[in-house]
Amino acid sequence: PEALVLEFPELTSSTRRDHWLTLTKEIILLHQFISRYKIEATYQRWETHGRTILGVIRLHAAREMLRICPPPPSNFLIFTLFEELPKGDYVMEELANELKQMTEIGLCSVTSLLKGLNLVHPKVVDMNLGEVFDETVADDGGDEKSPLETKVEQAREEAKDIRIAKTSIEGLKEESIAESLLVTK
Known about the structure:
Largest sheet: 2 strands, parallel
Structural class: mainly alpha
Radius of gyration: 21 Å
């Protein structure tokens, strides 16, 4: 891959610069995901792009609500988040498998959500097969967790365990420093 250099000379605020760099990174990771997992069908690509669009919308809403202390952008963008999470690559692999197995648009699919927001989306046509993707809304019918949901929960739990372990280590370091000070007095 070629090196990519981006310059934002007009961005003086580090928060704004970090925001735009994270958005740019998300787009790059989106295209790497599509290339790596060979997402070729148009409707599958649209679902993948739509997930990024929804992440940007969530990020924008959070930034509007929390103007004084904006949240880190990477927490709202899926490809950036899963790149940083432990075992995020497993989640991405499961997402790719789920996209490849997709045969109809469900109630919670990105296409349905974006339609509800009245965002214009392209006619989802699979150019490779020359057929129009069926846009009938399917009812999931059950409360079973998909493999993707299971992988996401596992990644979140492991990240939570890592945070707890790091906090414990920091606490132990502080206690040992305090004990060392008492001994020296």
